[in-house]
Amino acid sequence: MVLFENVSMTYPGGEARAINDMTFAIEDGEFVFLVGPSGSGKTSIIKLITGEVTADSGTLNVNGFDLRHIRRRKLPLMRRTIGVIFQDFRLIEDMTVYDNVAFAMHIVGATNRQIHQRVPYVLELVGLSGREKRYPREVSGGEQQRVAVARAIVNSPQLLIADEPTGNLDPAMSLELMLLMDRINDNEMGTTVLVVTHEKELVNSFSKRVIAIEDGRVISDGMDGYYSYEIK
Amino acid sequence: MKSSKIGYLIKEGLKSIVTHGFMSFASVTIIVACLVIMGSFTLIAVNIDAMLDDLEADNVMVAYVEETFPEEEARALQPQIEYLANVRSCEFETRAEAYEEFVSQHEGQSAFQSLPVEVLRDRYIIYLEDISMMEQTEEQVRQIVGIARVRADTKVAQGFMNVRNVVSAVSLILVVVLVVVSVFIMSNTVKLATVSRKDEIAIMKMVGASNWFIRFPFVVEGLVLGLFGGLLAFLLEWAVYDIMTGQILSLLGNLLTVIPFASISAVVLLVYLGVGLVVGAFGSSIAIRNYLQV
Q1: B4, B8, B207 member nearest A104 (Cβ)
Q2: In a domain, A62, yes or no
Q3: Is A64 part of any domain?
Q4: With an 8 Å Cβ cutoff, is B292 touching chain A?
Q5: pTM of the model
Q6: B60-152 classified as CATH 3.30.70.3040
Q7: Closest Cα to residue A48, out of A35, A31, A65?
Q8: B83: alpha, beta or left? (left if phi > 0; alpha if psi -120 to 50)
Q9: What residues of chain B lie within 8 A of the CB of A78, using their CB?
Q10: ipTM, 2 decimals?
Q11: Residue A42's closest CA among A194, A232, A184?
Q12: Is A101 domain-assigned?
């Protein structure tokens, strides 16, 4: 569960608040789109949820961790409850597809046996069977993004965050990726999914909850599955 | 901690040496260059020090016994002289022995051949522990009853002290400057190596890796590169030392004595491996510290 309650945040040296008295909650098992124009605060919300930055005021809880008062050494434990997917994939270039997924399991202390069982299963789930030994540069953009999805879900996180995940993909691949995340949320694992995106068409093609933000504030939060405001 | 996890991290550190081949090569080259330059200057200083030790050992005092003392009484003074703190050893020389030596030194000069033995005195040749204390020791020997006069080349001793001080100061300054320059170059090389892995570290943090999980392979990598650099530097230093000392000895022959590398090789190897280890492990550990604060 993600809970923002009157959260405000200003970047060090910044004048304006990046997040301004923001309140919303995402329950376990929900699929939520977070939309808004550039500079509206979407990335700041992700940074707050992943513990990269700290809120100045308010209450911020993620998967049972109080992120306003969490100790630095506890951050890795909190991050292991989250899977993150980025627009630029962020794969380790020197690792094969298999190793990119497996190292996330090494981090949580999984045994080699568990890793050998789990990684092929997850790669199959995202449609990458047979690509295990390839390096990121040897597979397509869509496949690289699916490696990132596999890495994000391999430890069965409670929350999956996707930051503009379709930004580098063509419309067909984008739809395919969104369907995969829907499947992860709906059928396979029941993982909570938060997708940050600009893509109106994509949002409108799924009947999901949409939180719209602007200038660091929530301007609409609807269950009608519609990108219900216009970017200025 | 599970051994499989440690094994994985060690494997990742070793793999990284190969996958980041160019930076590994650069790091080892810098470590070797810095160690050889610093080591060479230190070895030059050590050799000069040893040469000064040899020369100082030849710098002796001569104490002349009273003319009225028969040989037996003159010999009886030896324990008193040897008892003095700064005296390493002393040799008694009778007037007859001194005369023979004198004559042999002035062979062919008839004026010296007819001198009576009595013009010379029984004497002690005194070897010192520390020639910087020559004046004090000279005074102490002079106080001994039966010693008529002491000849000590305090000016020569002072000259040695001055040379040693200058050599020590110059070596110290050079080594300090080289250490500072080496540390600067090494830390920048390590920083450069880690900047290229900034993204990799950020990904690991995002996936939930703890700081030590990220740091461990870097430290393994640094340790191995540092050890390898230390070993290479040692072998190169040996070769350079042998070539240089060979050239110097062929030019100056018996005028100089140099310390054989074999007699100091164990110490040099230990120091080089130690410095390599410390620079490698701490360098990589410290260099990634900034990237761990995410």
Answers
A1: B207
A2: no
A3: no
A4: no
A5: 0.68
A6: yes
A7: A65
A8: alpha
A9: 208
A10: 0.81
A11: A194
A12: yes
